[in-house]
Structure formats: structure tokens, C-alpha cells
Design goal:
The protein has 115 residues and is an all-alpha fold. It has one domain. It is 73% helix and 0% strand. The longest helix is centred in the first third of the chain and has 24 residues, at 26-49. The protein is elongated. It starts with a helix and ends with a helix.
Length: 115
């Protein structure tokens, strides 16, 4: 039961992100969260399939998927703060911000999953 909840707890960010940002940025934000969720799941599956459920180095005892959710949640909060203060931003600029934070999540989660 709890493993199912831990696997899908990051879905809570979809409605939170939808209502937290301004109207013109809602679909960009949902795309950002969905792509980040897919990224976290792909990275975790690669680690689990390789036999490293707790990371390659084994410094942390938590599961790699939980680590990915925690790190990405930190970046989601950062993204919501930035999106709140950039209400006049055009679509292309907002997309660039989404992509840069997406790659920050990728690098950070990769490093944390290795630990």
C-alpha cells in the first residue's frame, strides 16, 4: 500500500502547479511537471534495473525513487516562486526557464541517485 503511495505522491504537484501559476503559464507548467515526473521515473527505473535500489555508492539508505521525488519537489517549489514573480513573461522566455530548471532537476537527481 505504501509503496503505491510513494510511487505516485508526486502527482499532487499537478493541480498545485496548475493553480499556483498565472493563467498564461499554466500549460507550460503542467508540461514541465509531467516531463519531470517522467524523467524521475526513467532515472529510477534505470538504477533499479541495474541492481542499485539504494544508489551506486550506497551512502544513503532510502530508495532512489524517493530521493528523486524529494529533490524534484524542492525544484518545483523554486519554480513556483519564480513563476509567481514572472507574470509578465512571454511564452518563449517562460519555456526557456522551464527547460533550464528541467535540466537542473536532471543533473541534481542524477547525482543524488548515485549517492
Amino acid at each position: 500500500m505504501f509503496s503505491f503511495i510513494y510511487s505516485w505522491i508526486d502527482v499532487i504537484w499537478l493541480p498545485v502547479m496548475y493553480f499556483a501559476v498565472h493563467k498564461q503559464h499554466r500549460w507550460w507548467s503542467l508540461g514541465f511537471v509531467l516531463s519531470s515526473m517522467i524523467l524521475i521515473r526513467l532515472l529510477a527505473e534505470m538504477m533499479i534495473h541495474g541492481g542499485y535500489d539504494n544508489g551506486v555508492l550506497g551512502f544513503l539508505d532510502s530508495h532512489v525513487h524517493i530521493r528523486g521525488i524529494v529533490v524534484s519537489s524542492f525544484f518545483y517549489v523554486l519554480f513556483m516562486i519564480l513563476a509567481h514573480y514572472s507574470q509578465e513573461t512571454r511564452g518563449a522566455i517562460f519555456l526557456a526557464a522551464c527547460l533550464s530548471i528541467f535540466f537542473m532537476i536532471f543533473v541534481s537527481v542524477s547525482i543524488v541517485m548515485l549517492l
